[in-house]
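Supplementary Note 3. Input sequence used for the single-chain structure prediction.
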Amino acid sequence: MPGAKASLKHVSGSLFGLGVFMAISLWLAGPGTNAGPFDLARLLVPGVARDLLYSPQGLNGSSGWFTSYKHEVGQREDTQAESLLQPVNYSMPTATPSVAGLAAAIPGHLIDSEAVDRHSLKSEQERKVVSQYLVDKYRITASESLNYINEALQVAKEVNLDPTLLLAVMAIESSFDPNAQSKAGAQGLMQVLTNVHQDKFAPFGGKSAAFIPEANIRVGALILKACIAKAGSLEAGLRSYLGSPNAASGESSYTGRVLSEREQLRNAARGKSYASI
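The predicted structure, written as discrete structure tokens, is reproduced below.
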């Protein structure tokens, strides 16, 4: 009888050890195995520990031992599943690529002079007043408004367009929300149709850069300049940018609203009164 109890205890211990081994194995393998018991394993061992093991930094900034070990012995062949463990980086290159070269390929003589203004927002006082205008009307921070103004000025130089025109398009298209997205797939500050123009985002790291202001403004401005050149006038170019070449004109139309907003921006820069709502 004592021998039977000892055998039973030995078998129970072995089964328990096997169970723990299987749980840890499933836990380390992760959901990529499609194994149902993974959920149970996840409950048995804290997920944060697994993250530390797989992290390239590991504990205290050192290399994660499990990741390093797998790399050394080549135990994991599923590289696609392995990449899912790493965070996706949507950041832009350190230096924002210029679109000046691409813009220069668009014949300048085809651009309506109404779309060009090299004198807007030159002084610090003009930029300060326009910044406050944007803060009051669009409920963005002073830092954000100044960033958008400075970026519009830089991009305007690259594409040779009026910076207040670029700001007006941003205002009407997205109300200065860099994460804006329409049901039609238009994204970012200038509501660029990313799937249509994804090749233009390649220099900025891919189409996910549509939500990065520096990239979105440059791509949007480049498209706007091409639309103006092809359509033959500023108003026709704005309708083309909207995607409705035959859209109606007038104060309440898209073109009317953009041009009205640009005039408000210019008035603010000149020190004239403006409507904040």
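Confidence is low (pLDDT under 50) at residues 26-90. Residues 12 and 277 are 75 Å apart (CA to CA).
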